[in-house]
Amino acid sequence: MLQLDNQLCFALYSTSLAMTKLYKPLLDALGLTYPQYLVMLVLWEQDHLTVGALGERLFLDSGTLTPLLKRMESSGWLTRTRAKEDERRVVVSLTPAGQALRQSAISVPRQVSGAAQCSADELHDLRRRLHDLRRRLAPQAVSDAPGSDPATHKVEAA
Fold first, then answer.
1. Which one, 33, 92, 96, 157, has least CB within 10 Å?
2. Is the whole-model pTM more than 0.70?
3. Which domain of life is it from (predicted)?
4. What's the average model confidence in pLDDT over 57-65?
5. Is residue 154 part of a domain?
């Protein structure tokens, strides 16, 4: 039937809102917004990425990512420098403060998992299914993204 609660898109949308609301106070304590937290997660995995590579990983275009990175740079979390071999490319690197922030953020996934009231297996299965759905909906965008294989992801949080 054509009812709001029967729509997968609404279930995903409303769950995303609830997750973002859950993350907000945890990230406020770190001085980060949710999009900034995602940038930091990628850079904690692999530092010194180009803006393009970072955008691919996060599924964000440079028009969205550049202002976000500028704010993070002014906050002291990262630097943006032109690549020596190709000045059109901008390399994003963590500062010592950005690297140190990782230690403060370690508890965030555990706190989110606890609030979700699901087992680690349930969360892993849900994440796997969501990655699979995303891959089916946008096969080219997902298959080209580095690190997009859910089978390689360690279960740590929702």
1. 96
2. yes
3. Bacteria
4. 93
5. no
